[in-house]
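TL;DR need structure tokens for one chain.
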Amino acid sequence: MRLIGGDIRKSGRGRSIDPETQVLVTLRYMAKGDFYSETGDVHGVSRSSVCRIIHNVVTSINKRLHNIRFPRTNEDILHTKVMFQRSCGLPNCLGAVDGTLVPIIAPKQNEEAFVSRKGCHALNVQAVADADMRFTDVVCRWPGASHDAMVFDNCALKEHLEATNIGHLLGDSGYPLKPFLMTPYLHPGSPAEERFNKAHKRGRVVVERSFGVLKARFRCLSKSGGCLPFAPEKSANIILCCFKLHNLCLERGLPLPDISSDNDDSQTPGEFIHECGRGGIQRRNELTQLFSR
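>> reply
TL;DR here they are.
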């Protein structure tokens, strides 16, 4: 409330709705994914007011809360690399990247572009997580039919990593092998390559766990909560808000929710032909040598 209290005023046509109630309405919706009517009934608020309240509170949080930050300073970069090396044994790792699907209502425009591999309308959200399950980069504007590799190829983070050569991310086989993006061997041919793949998986699994915790805490993003009944742009704002609140929960030390087995809205690598340049192959071979002993 202290963060956004100045942005939220009493609202409501029939009666005033205090800022605290507006925040509670928004948090309940994001946590449960309820219908507007159910959320409104709990707090004695009309359905139309619930819709307006959610967007006002989400807009304020996104405006005021800036806690999704990719490591840029030498200190932050070193800390991130050390934590990953401790967890999986791979040096120079800056995060694990993956895409996850967030179901939305069928949009009125360009509807077919939002039909995902799983047959539902969705946004394909790309995120990078560090070893502590904090999200350090989020892109949530691409339709569900977009491939993970295409989303990454068109993001600002890819350009930053390519230009600075400060380290690499870990990605699954749906991504191209690059000096700044390490993927596993599809067909490991030696014990060292198998050990590299195991270490790679230990490092990469953190982003999958982060998605699981995110969607267990904010059911509005999961298929178990139905779908976001908004246009893509408004849905993207709510998604970004949930990512920021996830980081805030970690910062405040809130207990982690149980990750249910039915919470599987992640993208799966599809058949996609990648051009693997020499730089990526050489970098992966160098890392694999660490596991040859």
